Amino acid sequence: MENNKPTEHDITEVVAQQSAANPTENGVMMVINHGTVHPPFSVLWTTVLYCAEFICASVLSSMYHKTDDVVWMGLTITFMLVPSVLTQLTLTFVHRDLGRDRPLVLFMHLLQMGPIIRCIEALVVYCQAGKKEEPYVTISRKIKLKHGRGLGPAFECEIGHSERKLAVHRNAFKRTAVIQAFLGSTPQLTLQLYATIQEKYVLPTRLALMIISMISIVYGALVCSVLAIQIKYDDYKVRMKPAAYLCMILWRGLEIATRIATLVLFSTTLTVWVVLVGLTNLFIFFFQPWVEFWARKASLPENIEKNFSKLGTTVVLCMVTFLYACINIFCWSAVQLDLADHDLVEKQPRWRSLAIYYTLRFMENVTLMILWYYFKSDFYEYICTPLLVVQLIVCYGLAVIFMLIFHQFCHPCRRLFHYNVEDCLRCSCCRKKKQSQPPENHARGPQEHAPPDLTNHLTDRETDIVDDIMEAA
């Protein structure tokens, strides 16, 4: 809640100073200074990707119109406008503009230029931040991580008006980046790659659109991974290192590129069957959270939006589930949906789900590549197709390896896991040893090879954690 009374703010500072004299009082270290206002780089980067992809798709559609390629033109416009409209709706919904008198902003959204005006607003807020003293609007309470462990007392940081406004912009653009990546850039890249193979030549504009779409997809996948970490460990101050970002880029880039290449190659030979493959994946990932929801006989979460009825909440959950399914068609979404929870995300990591996903996805990709190899057309006679199949399989294997490296060595909260990659591999090896050991040694196996509890340093906390929405992707 906002508090604009100077006297109350002064009293708060006095109390904070008294608590700062004893930094471990009540297990909380009080920090008086406002948090540093970071530049809205994520907002600017998302806007640049949105504009670049929209402009390239418009130019390419115009070229298709001149050459009478009606099918390519229609699909390109569809994959350009549908995510653009959803982006405008998302930005309008997050900023609650329908209940405010802002005709210029709404007009810009109608022109599909909402991200541009939002980016300008964020830059103006950042430039004006710190020029005058402002009272805080909330307090963020976090626990610092040192060497991957939560050490020391929790610390509190005051959140000012400018920081809160920038946080709203960042959160809105995180949503739009994911929507643009998996509802627009992914089908757009798939379409243009398929058109390139079918027409047997590469247009410069088409190549530029494919490169921008690939960058947008990888960035959207990175946003999904970072958001999943921040949601699961929302009471810790999470800092991502450059090595972690590099590992995630290699992991996500190889995974998505291999998946799209496999689907496109398969579609050039068995066009009708690729529709069946895509719809099967979509239905499985769409209904999986709902089946778990109905199996637990849970109830719909409350307070997703105050003005929503049960019907409105159901519609929102269906849209979230649809986006979740579209992400999982091409890459691991990094989260498991829990439709009964207010955050809609299951916060306990499920290694079994991760292992099942990548195992089945690897088997599916190999199957599609083998089918393409046996039913391929004569167009590929000048290409070493066995080498291409091996390359795609190896690239997907490298993506899985980089994913394991990230969770084992680069994950910012890896020391908070109950079990890590090394522990899972060790347990698998122990299980094999126990099966080959005599019965008398079999009883002592679980005690000798039990994985260490990496969370014994955590203590129970009774704190009212305020959601920290200040972190940028």
From TrEMBL:
One of the record's GO cellular component terms: plasma membrane
Broad class of the protein's primary localization: membrane
Keyword annotations from UniProtKB, A to Z: Membrane, Transmembrane, Transmembrane helix
Region called Disordered, residue ranges: 436-461
Tagged with keyword Membrane: yes
Family: Belongs to the XK family.
Name of the protein described by the UniProt record: XK-related protein
Record organism: Sinocyclocheilus rhinocerous
